[in-house]
Amino acid sequence: MLYPLTFDTIFKDKIWGGQKIKTVLGKDFAPLPNCGETWEVSDVEGNVSVVKEGNLKGKSLRDLVAQYKDELVGKHVYEQYGDRFPLLIKFIDANDDLSIQVHPNDELAKQRGSGYGKTEMWYIMQADEGAKLNSGFNREVSKEEYVQAVADNTIQDILNIEPAKPGDVFFLPAGRVHYIGKGLLLAEIQQTSDTTYRIYDFDRVDQTTGEKRELHTELAVDAIDYHHYDQYKTQYKSEENASVNAVKSDYFVTNVLTFNQEVAHDYTQIDSFVILICVGGGLTIEAEGGYHVSLKMGQCALIPASVQQVTLVPDGDMTVLETYVP
After folding, report:
1. Annotated catalytic residue within 84, 139, 176, 198
2. Average pLDDT, integer, range 24-35
3. Is position 178 annotated in a ligand binding site?
4. 265: annotated binding-site residue?
5. Residue 18: strand pairing partners
6. I want to staple 197 with a disulfide (CB 3.0 to 4.6 A). Which of 77, 216, 224, 314 is the partner?
């Protein structure tokens, strides 16, 4: 019988990483000097999640999908993705600006033999004063203008920069130029893909190699959406003791749940696994068969598609992201 699953955290040392994974989220990443990302639910080759607790402890997510198929992921999800788990969940600590980058869409990624594209979203969990990020351009830009700006090292002049505070959501479809700014701790929900085209890296030098990191400026040109949009920050209104939709896309739906009282959730109509990501406070997830799992800020659980009812019991105030495949 399947039950709410938690996984061992995969820690990633990054040139721009810091200490908040430890100091804010309470995860010990020793012996790494810093930690830029934790991968919490992953089916990326070489970084496949392993079950942490219960009867399935030690099994990989890939093994579970192959064994349980639609029981784990849902009938329509399995028909669409087969044995490939479609979402990747991360926490990111930017102690410095990340590189300016873009991800291809599915069509371009497949053309180039790199599997799937990457549409993603960010939920800001903590922000230092004055923290900012980039999403898209600050005006309409032609491909030629963009290429010239990269060549002239003036790319930053055409980027849309947004202030960011806890609770903010940014949806980033494939093709949108972006970077996470210094001082932000966030949860990231994305397609299962590790394909990134790095455009500019602020001339940083890797302390280990003494080299600048590789750029992918030519690959990025045909991946970019050059349009300017009126709104880059996702508009939603958080409500106490309510589930509010923040993002609806072809790849995932994400709701923001803010509760201080017990709530029963029925997933009968979804036909998908659900991932619950705790981004504030703490809670216990109770499921049939006496299964329960406790989460605190910076932890998440995968609810298999066959587990159709859960009760969320908050430990005081809690904020949880609820994401699934539509």
Report:
1. 198
2. 95
3. yes
4. no
5. 35
6. 216
